Amino acid sequence: MGYHSTEGELAKRLAKLLSSDKYKVLVAQNENTLVLGWVVIEHRLTLEGGDRAEITGLVVSDSARGLGVGKQLVQSVLEWAKARQLDKVIVSSNVNRDGLHQFYKQIGFAERKTSKQYIKYL
């Protein structure tokens, strides 16, 4: 689905996510159990902003785009956050992903800020 990781790398990461109550991984499948998309949510606590849910990954296969899969996954995120008594869900999106920006706006998310991300490899 557009990300270049080995099956082993993904399996290790998934095992870590599933073993923690801070994260939730949800998968959308069709009737043949073909994966159509997935979302990862994190319960985050920051000093300045308090508790919140953050979507750290949302991927829908090309063949399933426009079918409501992403909308259903995000609805499940909102339900998860409400069940944890969180009052906000945050998601970041690359500035080049115009279609995704429209998707989030259409389902009720408001643009809050534009930022840059920096990385230093160790």
Please outline the helices and strands.
Layout: H1 7-18, E1 23-29, E2 35-46, E3 50-60, H2 69-83, E4 89-91, H3 98-106
Parallel strand pairs: 3-4
Antiparallel strand pairs: 1-2, 2-3
Summarize the structure.
The protein has helices spanning 7-18, 69-83, 98-106, and strands at 23-29, 35-46, 50-60, 89-91.
Describe the structure.
With 122 residues, the protein is of the alpha+beta class. 30% of the residues lie in helices and 27% in strands. It is built from three helices and four strands, in the order αβββαβα. It has a four-stranded mixed β-sheet, sandwiched between helices. A hairpin with a 3-residue loop joins strand 2 and strand 3. It is globular, with a radius of gyration of 15 Å. The model has no long low-confidence stretch (mean pLDDT 92).
Order of helices and strands: HEEEHEH
**% residues in beta strands:** 25-35%
| Largest sheet strand order | 1-2-3-4
**3D shape:** globular
